[in-house]
Structure formats: structure tokens, C-alpha cells
Amino acid sequence: MVKSIIVAKATNNAIGLNNDLPWHLPSDLKHFKQTTAGHHVIMGRKTFESLAKPLPGRTHIILTRNESFRAPQGHYAVQSLEEAFDIGKSKNLDKIFILGGAEIYEMAIPFTDELIITEVHANPEADTFFPPIDTDQWVEKSRERIDKKNTADEFDLDFVVYHRKN
């Protein structure tokens, strides 16, 4: 099972402000939806609670220390990353996505095979950041540039895929 982190991060590694995204990037939202549709997604409870409802077409695995938290029907609440990965293994999934937040990303990076990163060319104000990428551990596999002047995006961005070096 391929474990993939998917994140939009700014040049300053910003990923959030007040439990929301610090930008308006329709191209990234479309990319995120197309990439994760039909898959299981792992996220922290706060990230899950920042959504209006579970993301359609995805099974959510919500990581929480709160033992009384109950996931919506058809989704899972777990207390460890290992438990989350075990769900994926038990279902023979080809791929599982880690959606954040920052603490979950930090925990998951050592176990991740792939990083799918939207590199946002901006330095917005933020209170949540993605950990720095250790370039000794990762190799860039693909990059697609999106110019804001051709979209409704607030900033230029690149869709970048990294694979863990062997």
C-alpha cells in the first residue's frame, strides 16, 4: 500500500491560518479532489472538524486522542497512525492519503512513500506549517506549473510529486 501525503504549502511552508487555508486556489482544490476521490484519507480530528461534512467519495480515517470521539457512519476514528494504516492494509488498498494537519504530517513523514505537494508561490500569514522536506530523502518525479493569470487562483503554483529515495 502506497502511503501518500497530499498538501498545499507556501514558500514559507505555511499550510493554515485559524484552521482554514490561507489562500483561494480553485486549481488546487480540483487537483486535490481528482487525486483523492475514491480513496481512504487519514486526517487529524481538528482537520476533520474544519470540514463542513465528510469529503464526498472518500472514506475518512480520523486520528484522535479523544476516546469519546465517534466518526460518522462509514468512517473510522483511530488513536494511532499504525491503526489507520492497519485499516488500509486490512482492506488491501493500493493507496492511502494523509491529509494533515501539521502534527499528523510530522508523524506520518517517516512512513510515507510519496509526497504530492502543491507548492504555492506565496508567503502568507499562517499559524500552521508543513515540516521542511529533507531533500536527502526525496526525489522529484514530476512538476506541473500553474500560472495564476490563466486561472482564478490567487497565486502561481506547481503540482509536484516526490518519491522516497531507496
Write the layout of secondary structure elements.
Blueprint (H helix, E strand, L loop, with lengths): L1 E9 L3 E3 L9 H11 L3 E5 H6 L8 E5 L12 E3 L2 H10 L4 E4 L3 H7 L5 E7 L7 E2 L8 E9 L10 E8 L2
Parallel strand pairs: 1-6, 1-7, 3-4, 3-6, 4-5
Antiparallel strand pairs: 2-8, 7-10, 9-10
Structure description:
The relative contact order is 0.27. The chain is α/β, with parallel strands linked by helices and 166 residues long. Helix 2 (45-50) links the parallel strand 3 and strand 4 (59-63). It has one domain (2-164): Dihydrofolate Reductase, subunit A. The model has no long low-confidence stretch (mean pLDDT 96). The chain has helices spanning 26-36, 45-50, 81-90, 102-108; strands spanning 2-10, 14-16, 40-44, 59-63, 76-78, 95-98, 114-120, 128-129, 138-146, 157-164. The chain is built from 4 helices and 10 strands, in the order ββαβαββαβαββββ. The strands form 2 sheets. An 8-stranded mixed sheet has the order 5-4-3-6-1-7-10-9, with helices on both faces. A two-stranded antiparallel ribbon has the order 2-8. The protein starts with a strand and ends with a strand.
